Structures are given as C-alpha cells and as structure tokens.
Amino acid sequence: MERLIIEFSWKSSQIEGNTYTLLETEVLIKESKEAAGHKKEEAIMILDHKNALDFILKNNNEFKKITLGKIEHVHSMITKNLGIPRNIRKSPVGVTGTKYKPLDNEWQIKEALEKSCAVINSEEDVFAKSIISSIMVAYVQPFEDGNKRTARILSNAVLLVNNSCPLSYRSANEAEYKKAVLLFFEQNNISYFKKLFMQQYEFAVDNYFRFV
Q1: Four-CA torsion 5, 10, 12, 16, nearest 10 degrees
Q2: Which of 96, 108, 141, 144 is the most buried (most CB within 10 A)?
Q3: Dihedral of alpha carbons 21, 27, 32, 38, sign
C-alpha cells in the first residue's frame, strides 16, 4: 500500500500538471523533503493526495454509501491548503480543451450530484460503482477546482470498501486519460474511459497485490 500511495499521489498530481518526478514524490512522502526547483503548491498537492488516501484507508466503512457530504469532504482533503474554495461552486467554470459547459447553477449542481450518488449506491457491480463515481464527479464539476482529483479518490474509496484493489494510474498516459474524460464530456461515451479504468485495475492487481 505504501508503494501504491506514493505512485497514486505522483500520477494523479502529474495528470493535473504537477512537475514532481516519481523519485522526488517518494522522498517528499517518506522524508518530508521538498524537491528544489518546484513550487510549494506542488508539494502540497502531492501530500494532500497521500493524506486523503490515508483517510479512506482508515475510514473505509464511511464510503459504503456515497453522499453529497462525503464528496465534499473528499474534496476538502484533496485541496487542503491550496486556496481552493470548499463546498459547491456558485459560479460558472470552464474545462480546458473542450466546448463542454458544466452546470452553472448551485442548486442544479447539487441535484446532479445527488442523482449521481443515487445511481452509485443502487449499482451492485463494484467496477460500475467505481467508474460512475470517477466520471460523474468530473463531469458535473461541482467545485471550482480539484474535481478530477476528488473523483479519483472517491473512485478508489468505492473500490476499497468493496474489497477491491485501488488504482494508482501509474502506467496511464496523461493525454490518454484526458482524452477518455473529454470523450465522455462531449459525447457521453464512456467506453474509452471504461477500457482505461480496467487496464489500470489489472495493472494494480499485477503490480501491488498479486502474490506468487
């Protein structure tokens, strides 16, 4: 789990533009030593990932049922000390690289998230639950920033509470990940994202949890 936490914190941050290397991330997490030549916010982002994943590992039963409040709590952990406003946004946001326009009304956003929670909680298949958790939080864009990070943590919480391996996304190509997300945003086509998700699940089993 230590290795997975390090690699997840590195890759999830890298997807968001963080420039820390995997080795620098390991030193930061294990020794609390920030790497030279990087912004302070990059170290904070990585440590927020580590702390959020630690929390869901220790409090996994809390995620048997997904609620709006729990999504907000995950967001507050993954963006702590980064100056990102908490709670549901009250203003419009744009998504780089696409013409897709997320909902811009606070009450519509809450309604969309609550409907997403209902779908997640009613779904019996663990992989479907996790995929929906990941893609719908990113799609609704309920917060001013940190939406995809929140989605990836929530998705792992769903996997863990259902006795399945969490993902590190270590072998995922950032461009392919973003392509899969944008394809859903623009066409509501989840097939590409589902394929990437399952590849990363197989990677996690093979590299972190398979015993010979």
Answers
A1: 160
A2: 141
A3: negative
Q: Over the stretch 134-146, which tens digit does the pLDDT of each residue have?
A: 999 999 999 999 9
pLDDT digits (tens, 9 = 90+) for 110-141: 999 999 999 999 999 999 999 999 999 999 99
CA–CA separation, 12 and 117 (whole Å): 23
Rounded CA gap, 204 and 169, in Å?
8
Dist CA 199 CA 111 (whole Å): 32
Which tens digit of pLDDT belongs to each residue from 45-72? Answer: 999 999 999 999 999 899 999 999 999 9
Alpha helices in the chain (DSSP H): 2-15, 22-31, 40-58, 68-78, 106-122, 126-140, 147-161, 174-187, 191-204
- Report CA torsion sign: 5, 10, 14, 16: positive
Please report, in angstroms and rounded to a whole number, the separation of the first and last CA atoms in the chain: 17
Distance CA 163, CA 114 (A): 24
Q: Counting Cβ atoms within 10 Å, is residue 191 exposed (0-12), middle (13-18) or buried (19+)?
A: exposed
pLDDT score of 211:
55
pLDDT of residue 212: 42
* CATH of 59-209 given 2.60.40.420, 1.10.150.120, 3.40.30.10, 1.10.3290.10: 1.10.3290.10
